[in-house]
Amino acid sequence: MTTTLDRVPGPGAEAASANPAGRPRRRRPGRLRKSALPYLLLLPAVFFELLVHLVPIVIGIFMSFKKLTQFFIRDWGNAPWAGWDNYSIALDFDAPAGQALLHSFLITCAFTVLSVGLCWLIGTAAAIYLQEAFRGRGVLRALFLVPYALPVYTAVITWVFMFQHDNGLVNHVLHDQLGITDAPSFWLIGDNSFVALLTVSVWKGWPFAFLIVMAGLQNIPRDMYEASWLDGATMPQQIRHITLPSLRPVNQVLVLVLFLWTFNDFNTPFVMFGKAAPESANLISMHIYQSSFATWNFGTGSAMSVLLLLFLLLVTGLYLLYTSRGRRAADA
Amino acid sequence: MRDTAATTHRSPTAPPRSFLWSRRVFLTLLTGFVLLPVYVMVSSSLKPLEDVSSSFRWLPSEITVQPYLDIWQTIPLARYFVNSLIVAGAATVCSVIIAVFAAYAVSRYRFRGKRVFTVSVLSTQMFPGILFLLPLFLIYVNIGNATGIALFGSRGGLILTYLTFSLPFSVWMLIGYFDSVPRDLDEAALVDGCGPLGALFRVVVPAAVPGIVAVAVYAFMTAWGEVLFASVMTNETTRTLAVGLQGYSTQNDVYWNQIMAASLVVSVPVVAGFLLLQRYLVAGLTAGAVK
């Protein structure tokens, strides 16, 4: 283990500092030293990440090649090998299982694009509107963070209550008060559930975009706006040519994180629909959970999860490649 | 420049009127959207059961605090509350300490594997929880069988799981934050005879308090709100609020007023804490992650 230290000798430093009158300390910035210290500092983080994330994922990949049904769940090491069977079941789009997976995947894609887009749009707009000081800005800023601060389940439970058929607020307003719908609608089953899920997801998710963009805006020097104003730039021009380009690096990470969180979201649909989500709001995580635990076929469930991971890796890789190239081009 | 505009005419750099109007409309609508569920939660928690069982009403027919008394009886809410507090509190403390060490190493040292570490820690954000739920369950059960350390069904297992959930974001944010603490400061401390850990705890950590507070808030909220692992990995005695609240729906009745009252009770500590500390979060993000 060769370590390049910026300036600090390793464990010896403690001893040296205990004896300041001892031999002169040879500490110089940029000195090369062998040291285990940075690795020791990283050790706990690496250990826990390995234990809870990486090892289980390796086991998960291993399980996806096993015929892991309820008969072998207690003794899963001895389950027979399935080869690629689990994958061919998951990817056979003519058979019911593959068809359901594909449908759920497409639903999740549509849901993610809409949710991330709306969250980003609302969050950015709100952050830009709150950029200038005005009376009540602090109150609004705190207020807008409430959906983010609320625990997922309490927020989602409240929305579930609002979406109830007989005693919910949404039907009361749309049907009883405004008369827009002919009859009270079902929001938590059938096609409407997609809209309901999207509403909750955006309500819960946009404040994070708001928070990050707001922090990003604070790094834009004020003189840029003042200089452009002297040059006669209008407000929309300033937003287009100063604000949005300056937010580029922030947005690169923000959109990626929102995408991954939304695509993998389990908590929202799980609290909203319980163990069985309606087909039009059957997000991929819920679908895999259901098909693993309902049929006790964990092999196929694992194969589906691995496919999901591969898809996310591919999208993330392409996205980072594309956006960093765009960024380099913009910087040049 | 803006301050001098307190006289009759507007500051030259003040936004145009059209912007002010669109801002007013947008922010009003958004405030309505944000507050609607909050209003429903508060008002319904003060209603008698008849009000929430029949057609929705904006105002309670009578205001009652009975739901707030009943919530503790209908389910063992106090126990779930304590469980959540222990789990989220312990996960936060562990996660922050581990993240401080890791971020210090990355921020202050050059070593082989640094890039691999930062990239792989961040990439765990990509992993679908569902992929490692079952393997993790099997690992915990096997560790329990082999060593007698009960991880499955215990608070310890949940703490262990949750601390790793917030770790990547915490490390990532603290690296940026530590980078913004001038190196001269800890070099001065080293010259004064502190060891590297002394420099970390006496100089870097105190200078990075806002970032650390922000990370702690994030870690606590993550653990307090998690549902998937809590629903699989807890039993009746270790159940957390995330799962326990489902107990208000019985076969015959859904006590919506009690659900709303309980939701409010479990939300208030986190929301209040978050709102009190949110400026640290914004400051932490500004100095750290968003760069």
TrEMBL record, chain A:
Gene3D superfamilies: MetI-like (1.10.3720.10). PANTHER family: ABC TRANSPORTER PERMEASE PROTEIN, INNER MEMBRANE ABC TRANSPORTER PERMEASE PROTEIN YCJO. Pfam families: BPD_transp_1. Residues 1-29 are annotated as: Disordered. Keywords: Cell membrane, Membrane, Transmembrane, Transmembrane helix, Transport. It comes from the Bacteria. The keyword S-adenosyl-L-methionine does not apply. It is found in: Cell membrane. Residues 105-319 form the ABC transmembrane type-1 domain. GO terms for biological process: transmembrane transport. The lineage of its organism: Bacteria, Bacillati, Actinomycetota, Actinomycetes, Kitasatosporales. SUPFAM superfamilies: MetI-like. This is Sugar ABC transporter permease. Belongs to the binding-protein-dependent transport system permease family. It comes from Streptomyces triticagri. The chain crosses the membrane at residues 36-65, 105-130, 142-162, 194-217, 245-263, 302-322. One of its GO terms (cellular component) is plasma membrane.
TrEMBL record, chain B:
Gene3D superfamilies: MetI-like. One of its GO terms (biological process) is transmembrane transport. CDD domains: TM_PBP2. GO terms for cellular component: plasma membrane. Residues 81-277 form the ABC transmembrane type-1 domain. PROSITE patterns: ABC_TM1. Keywords: Cell membrane, Membrane, Transmembrane, Transmembrane helix, Transport. The chain crosses the membrane at residues 25-42, 80-104, 116-139, 159-178, 199-221, 255-277. SUPFAM superfamilies: MetI-like (SSF161098). Belongs to the binding-protein-dependent transport system permease family. This is Carbohydrate ABC transporter permease.
